[in-house]
Amino acid sequence: MVLAELGTRISKAISSMGQAMIIDEKVLDGVLKEICTALLQADVNVKQVANLRNGVKKRVNIPELAAGLNKQRVIEKAVFDELCDMLDSGADPKKVELKKEKGKQHTVMFVGLQGSGKTTTCTKYAYYYKKKGWKPALVCADTYRAGAFDQLKQNATKAQIPFFGSYKETDPAVIAEQGVNRFKAEGRDLIIVDTSGRHKQEAALFEEMKQVAAAVTPDVIIFVMDGSIGQAAFDQAKAFKEAVEVGAVIITKLDGHAKGGGALSAVAATKSPIIFLGTGEHMDQFESFETKRFVQRLLG
Ligand code: GDP
Question: Which segments constitute the SRP54-type proteins GTP-binding domain (predicted)?
Answer without folding.
Answer: 273-286
